[in-house]
Amino acid sequence: MAEVLILYYSRHGATAEMARQIARGVEEIKDMTARIRTVPAVSTVCEATEDEIPEQGALYVSEADLTECCGLAVGSPTRFGNMAAPMKYFLDTTSRLWMSGALIGKPAGVFTSTSSLHGGQESTLLSMMLPLLHHGMLLVGIPYSETALLHTTSGGTPYGASHLAGGDSKLPLTEEEKQICRTQGRHLAEIASRLDRGNT
Q1: Domain spans of the chain, in order of start
Q2: Which of 10, 76, 143, 198 is most exposed, with the fewest beta carbons within 10 Å of its own?
Q3: Taking Cα atoms as reference points, which of 93, 89, 130, 96 lies closest to residue 110?
Q4: pTM score of the predicted model
Q5: Model confidence over 149-184: pLDDT tens digits?
């Protein structure tokens, strides 16, 4: 089974739920499976240390998770129109993968959650694309054949799935948002599967 890595950071749970929905979409594709991983929080005042295994949720990502995947989805909540510091911190540690070219040619997508509808969803998605481009990855968006993109009044963009979490970060994913997440997972997995078959 080929694997798509779904890597996220989530503070209040919405981005984690998006990761699970994207994983569902991935696993709708024959011979494809999803591996869900997260990144630890970081501290603004000192070097943060976390247990090797989180108390709950997905395991922390390892370098092997990235080298072994045939596709990647990266998700983060929005922080002032940018990805959250823990995800940026992790991506900043992937220089060895960049030097080896381990991610070149692999498809990748991005997803995000914001507390307000115009709180920087698209700029956050674009910010997460930049390091993936530097790694030589192939960016995969969501095509408008997913008609929920035309009708959503919550989250969802052609750049990647998004979610409107509300001011208290407690709004659940809408059915349209879930559908868009699953479509992103399916689309990414379909492309990863085609590329993977071409390499074997």
Answers
A1: 2-198
A2: 198
A3: 130
A4: 0.94
A5: 999 889 999 999 999 999 898 999 999 999 999 999
